[in-house]
Amino acid sequence: MATSRSELSAIATARMILRHRKILLSVTRVELAKRYSGSAFGLVWVFLYPALLLSIYLFVYLVIFKMRFPGYSEMDYTLFVFCGLIPYMGFMEALTAGALSIKQNMHLIRNVMLPIELIPVRAVAVGLASQSVALIILIALALANGSLSVHVLWLPMVIILQALFLIGLVLVVSALAVALPDVSYFVNLGVLLLMFISPIGFKPDMVPAGFAPLIYLNPVHYMTDAFRSSVLANHVIDISSLGIYALICIVTFALGCAFFIRFKGVLVDYE
Amino acid sequence: MSDLIVKAVNLSKVYRLYAKPHHRFLDMFGLLGQKEGAYTEHRALDRVNLEIRKGERVAFIGRNGAGKSTLLKLATKVIEPTSGTIDVAEGANALLQIGAGFHHDFTGRENAVSYLAHLGITGKEAINQVEEIIEFAELEEYIDQPIKTYSTGMVARLMFAVSTSINPKLLVLDEILGVGDAYFAQKSQARLQELCEKNETTVLLVSHDIYAAARLCNRMIWIDKGRVIIDGISSTVMKAYEDSIRAQEEARLRQKKFRYLETSLNQTPENNLEHVRIEFFSKNNMPLNGIVYFSRITLKKHDGTTLELPLTSGHQDSHAPHLDLNDGCWGSPTDWNGRHSRPMLNHGSPFHSVSGSFVGSKLGSLDLLSHFEVEYWMEADSDLLLRVFVNQESVDLGPLPTVAGAWNSHTAKIPSSSTLAPQNEINLAGIHGTGDITIIDILTLNELGQESFHFRHGEAVTIAIKFHIKRKDLCERVQILVAFLRDGVQDVCRVIDRDLIFDHTEHPIGTVFMHWNRMPLAPGSYAVSAIIAKEGYYDRPQSVFYSINPEVYSCISRGTEIIVQDGGAVASGTAVVETADWAIGDARAKPHAPKPQSANSGTQSTIKIDFPDCVSRQFPAEFPLAWDVTQEILEKIKGKEYSRLAIHSPGLAGFDWGTYLKLSVIRMTHALRALRTNVPERGSVLDFGSYFGNFSLMACAAKYEVFAADSYTKYGNELAPIMELLRDRGASIWDLPDNATAHPTGKKFDAVLLMGVIEHIPHSPRLLLEMINGLLKPDGVLILDTPNLAYIYNRQKLMIGESVFCPIESQFWTAYPFEGHHREYTAGELDWMLKAIGHKIVESTSFNYSMLGAGTLTGRDAENYLQMQNDPLMREVLFTVSKPLKEDDALKP
Question: How close does chain A come to B68, measured CA to CA in Å?
Answer without folding.
Answer: 14
